Amino acid sequence: MKMIDRIPVSEFPNFKYEDQDVINAFLWLRSFLSDEDWNQRKEAIENKLSYDFRISNPFSEPLTEGTLLLDNNDQIGWYLYLVHTLLYEPHKYEYFQGARIIPIFKRLGMNLNEVKNMKVSKKRLEIF
Prior knowledge:
By secondary structure, this protein is an all-alpha fold.
């Protein structure tokens, strides 16, 4: 299999995403995970992406057989990963997937004070 030539990170434009609502929502949700847990989940997602991604011509496979950029075993981890890459590693950000997720984080961040004041059982937080 032919490897894809990589563009050095230094050649990417300097980009900084600064929407405070998205940042606040990410940091709040991320606070439910320990650093160790987050790093393990992030590494697992990156390993999945690096091993499961394959070269194919665009639109050459049905959606049911193509590469799916989502880990069904850790959906909240995938969502957090998308926002993390937008904020801190934009060269890894997946625009098509993120376009579905970033608006949710934006709305959550806009209403974060209300969300924090909601009474939610510990059972509900087990999605993490």
